[in-house]
Amino acid sequence: MALLKRHIRHHSLEEAEKRNDIGFGTLVTDVPTRLINRDGSFNVKRLSETFWGKLNLYNRLITISWQKFFLLVISYFFITNLIFALAYELIGIEYLHGIELTNEWTKFYDAYFFSAQTLTTVGYGRIAPHGFIASTVASIESLLGLLTFALATGLLYARFSRPEARILYSKNALIAPYLDITGLMFRIVNERQNQLIDVTVELVFTILEQTPEGKKVRKYYGLPLERNKVQFFPMNWTIVHPIIEESPVFGMTREDMLKGEAELFVLIKATEDTFNQSVHSRMSYHAKEMVWGAKYESMIWEKNGMITMDLSKLSDIREVPLTSEYIPDDKYEESEKQAD
C-alpha cells in the first residue's frame, strides 16, 4: 500500500512538472473574459493589500503618463504654496516685511508669491520674514522645496532614461492561408524611430478543456513559430504559427475557440539600441479578436529608391478563402453559419 501511494505521488509530481503553466494557474475557468489586457496589464484585481503595497509610489510616478505626471507636479506646487500662504496669513501678514497692506487680496497674493519664491529658493528680496515663527515656517518651506525639487529631478531623469518598447499590434489576429496550409498570425511594428535589435517572440495559446472526469481546466500550449527571432526590426513583422497536425489549434473552429475562451498570449523581448538595455512588450488576442479567412494588406512600398511604410495600414485586412487540410470545407461552412 505504501509503495502504491509513493507511485501515485511520483506520478502526480511528474504530471505537475509537465504542466505548462505561465503563471495564471489551471483553475481559472469561470472568467468570461481575457487574462491579459490589450495594453499588456494583467486582468487581475487584488484585494486586502496593505496601504504601502497598494500605493507603490515610485512605480506609479515612473509609469504614469507624462500628462498625469506634469499635472501632479503643477498641482503639488500650487497646493503647497497655497498651504504656506494660508500659514503666513495665520501667523500675521505684518510679519512679512515688504508686503503691500492695501487690501486683503493684495496681502494674500503677496504671501502666495513669497511662498513660491521661498519654495523654489529664488528669494527676490522684496519680501522677507520677520520674527521667530515666520522665519521658522519660511526655513521649513525652503527645506521642503530643496527636497521636492531633488525628488522631481530624479523622477524626470528616471522617466527619460527608462527604455520602453513602443510596439504597435494589429487589431486582430488572423487565421489565414499560409504556404499550402493555414497559419495563425498577427502583425507588429515599432512605433518609434529608435532601433530594436535581437527581437524575440514567444506565443502561448490557452483554452478551457474538459477532463475525462468532467472538470474544466485551463491548458496552456507554447506555439512554435515560422520565425521567432529577427536581428533587426526596421519594418513590420508578421508573426506566423503554422497550423499543422501537431499544433494545438489544428482542427479547431471559431466556435470551439469562443466556447473555450481561447486567448493568445504574446511576449516580445528586444534590446533597445539607444540605452543598450532589454525591453519587453506583452499583449493578448482573445478568440473574439481572431478573424478567420483574411490576410493583411501590404503596408510597404518602394518609390524612388526609398522604402516607405504606412503605419496606419497595420490592421488593414481583406477577406480570402480559407480551405486547407486544417479545416474541411463543410466544417468551415458550418462554423460560418454558427458565427453569423
TrEMBL record:
<dbReference type="GO" id="GO:0034765">
    <property type="term" value="P:regulation of monoatomic ion transmembrane transport"/>
</dbReference>
<dbReference type="InterPro" id="IPR013099">
    <property type="entry name" value="K_chnl_dom"/>
</dbReference>
<keyword id="KW-0407">Ion channel</keyword>
<keyword id="KW-0630">Potassium</keyword>
<dbReference type="GO" id="GO:1990573">
    <property type="term" value="P:potassium ion import across plasma membrane"/>
</dbReference>
<keyword id="KW-1133">Transmembrane helix</keyword>
<dbReference type="GO" id="GO:0005886">
    <property type="term" value="C:plasma membrane"/>
</dbReference>
<feature type="domain" description="Potassium channel">
    <location>
        <begin position="86"/>
        <end position="157"/>
    </location>
</feature>
<keyword id="KW-0812">Transmembrane</keyword>
<dbReference type="GO" id="GO:0005242">
    <property type="term" value="F:inward rectifier potassium channel activity"/>
</dbReference>
<feature type="transmembrane region" description="Helical">
    <location>
        <begin position="132"/>
        <end position="158"/>
    </location>
</feature>
<dbReference type="Pfam" id="PF17655">
    <property type="entry name" value="IRK_C"/>
</dbReference>
<dbReference type="InterPro" id="IPR013518">
    <property type="entry name" value="K_chnl_inward-rec_Kir_cyto"/>
</dbReference>
<dbReference type="InterPro" id="IPR041647">
    <property type="entry name" value="IRK_C"/>
</dbReference>
<keyword id="KW-0406">Ion transport</keyword>
<dbReference type="InterPro" id="IPR016449">
    <property type="entry name" value="K_chnl_inward-rec_Kir"/>
</dbReference>
<feature type="transmembrane region" description="Helical">
    <location>
        <begin position="69"/>
        <end position="88"/>
    </location>
</feature>
<keyword id="KW-0851">Voltage-gated channel</keyword>
<dbReference type="InterPro" id="IPR014756">
    <property type="entry name" value="Ig_E-set"/>
</dbReference>
<keyword id="KW-0472">Membrane</keyword>
<keyword id="KW-0633">Potassium transport</keyword>
<dbReference type="Pfam" id="PF07885">
    <property type="entry name" value="Ion_trans_2"/>
</dbReference>
<feature type="domain" description="Inward rectifier potassium channel C-terminal">
    <location>
        <begin position="167"/>
        <end position="324"/>
    </location>
</feature>
<protein>
    <submittedName>
        <fullName>Inward rectifier potassium channel</fullName>
    </submittedName>
</protein>
<keyword id="KW-0813">Transport</keyword>
<dbReference type="GO" id="GO:0034702">
    <property type="term" value="C:monoatomic ion channel complex"/>
</dbReference>
